[in-house]
């Protein structure tokens, strides 16, 4: 496994080592010791899986206060554009976003610390996203930012007519309302 820095502190890409042969491939998808060796102390308690069709944008979500969640995101089928937004007010990169392509082909993972908002857009016909979380879902503490927030100015790599947004996500506030 390889830990790759991003421009946002504490936000990392993880590239597993892939062993390929004529039968297919093998990889270690998660190694807690690898995180600990890199001084990343996460206690992931649950795996979540979501399957979506092309054009779906999920997010940009986060949980507040003591219910904030760290996440480890990977794609087991298809391709997504994954986006993390730094909403840690004390951070030098507050308000900045980071975008990366995660796919079943490249096997990259995004490790998102607490205090960041997260969303993704499905770029393939379908995609299955698997992610670990370190804190349980708490509906009273969930929040988010509109996918089309002008201040964040995220290029979702989709045409507007392709975008499929849930009614719930269309009700989210804007970044300057945090």
Q: Care to describe what's here?
A:
- The chain is mainly beta and 178 residues long.
- It has a single domain, classed as Jelly Rolls, CATH 2.60.120.
- Helix content is 6%, strand content 42%.
- The protein contains two helices and 13 strands, in the order ββββαβββββββββα.
- The strands form three sheets. It has a six-stranded antiparallel sheet, with no helix packed on it.
- β1 and β2 form a beta hairpin.
- It is globular and about 50 Å long.
- The chain starts with a strand and ends in an 8-residue tail after the last helix.
- 26% of the residues are buried.
- The mean pLDDT is 97.
Which terms summarize this structure?
178 residues; mainly beta; Jelly Rolls; 2 helices; 6% helix
How is this structure best summarized?
The chain is built from two helices and 13 strands.
**Euclidean distance between termini CA atoms:** 36 Å
CATH topology: Jelly Rolls
Largest sheet: spatial strand order: 1-2-10-7-12-5
H and E string: EEEEHEEEEEEEEEH
| Strand segment tally | 13
| Total domain modules | 1
CATH-level-4 superfamily name: Jelly Rolls
Structural class assignment: mainly beta
Largest sheet features: 6 strands, antiparallel
Spatial extent as radius of gyration: 16 Å
- Measured by DSSP, the beta-strand proportion falls in 35-45%
Helical content stands at under 10%
* Architecture (CATH level 2) name: Sandwich
CATH class: Mainly Beta
Envelope shape: globular
The number of distinct helices, counting runs of at least 4 residues, comes to 2
Residue ranges: pLDDT <50 for 5 or more in a row? none
Give the overall average pLDDT: 97
Query: Quaternary state, please?
Result: single chain
């Amino acid at each position: 496994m390889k830990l790759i820095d991003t421009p946002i502190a504490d936000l990392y890409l993880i590239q597993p080592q892939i062993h390929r042969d004529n039968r297919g491939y093998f990889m270690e998808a998660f190694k807690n010791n690898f995180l600990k060796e890199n001084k990343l102390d996460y206690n992931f308690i649950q795996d979540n899986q979501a399957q979506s069709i092309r054009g779906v944008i999920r997010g940009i979500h986060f949980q507040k206060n003591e219910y904030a969640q760290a996440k480890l995101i990977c794609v087991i089928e298809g391709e997504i554009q994954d986006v993390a937004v730094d909403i840690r007010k004390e951070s030098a990169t507050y308000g900045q976003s980071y975008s990366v392509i995660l796919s079943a082909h490249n096997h990259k993972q995004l490790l998102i610390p607490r205090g960041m908002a997260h969303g993704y857009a499905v770029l393939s016909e379908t995609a299955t996203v698997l992610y670990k979380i370190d804190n349980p879902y708490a509906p009273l503490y969930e929040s988010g930012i509109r996918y089309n927030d002008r201040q964040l100015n995220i290029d979702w790599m989709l045409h507007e007519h392709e975008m499929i947004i849930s009614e719930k996500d269309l009700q989210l506030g804007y970044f300057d309302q945090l």
